[in-house]
Amino acid sequence: MLDDLPPDLPRLETLRTWHAMWLDRIDTKLGRVREQEEQQARAAQERAARAPDWIVELGIGQGSPPIEVHRGDCHAAGKRRRTATRDDARRLLADGVRACTHCQPDVELHMLE
Asked: How far is Cα 82 from Cα 58, in angstroms, rounded to an integer?
């Protein structure tokens, strides 16, 4: 058996105190990280619960023309966007606005050529 610990009581007690201190720090950090993850999960659920069915990503410039159609929960949608109804999304796709390659709204809307 490997016995690399000191043989005397004072040093053993010092090591025990030091490790107890570290375990307390680790437990505190674990608690904070778990709470952050729970908050992030709750926030994601709230976002998903209130996500629109369809999103139109808008371009830059005069009138901010629509450039891409996304499902409401698509992670690839840009920051410049507006919500759209199902009919709006279908009309935009029919008019030639690009469908997102990640969430594939054209498949879900049965708009394939």
From this structure: 7
Strand partners, 82: 56
14/88 Cα distance (integer angstroms): 70
- What residues pair up with 55 in beta bridges, in sequence order? 70, 83
Q: Is the pTM of this model over 0.70?
A: no
Q: In the structure encoding, which two tokens stand for residue 45, read together?
A: 């659920």
Q: What's residue 1's pLDDT? A: 67
Domain ranges of the chain: 9-50, 51-108
Is there a contact between 66 and 57 (Cβ–Cβ < 8 Å)?
yes
Cα distances (Å, whole numbers) of residue 4 to 7, 12, 20, 110: 9, 11, 19, 69
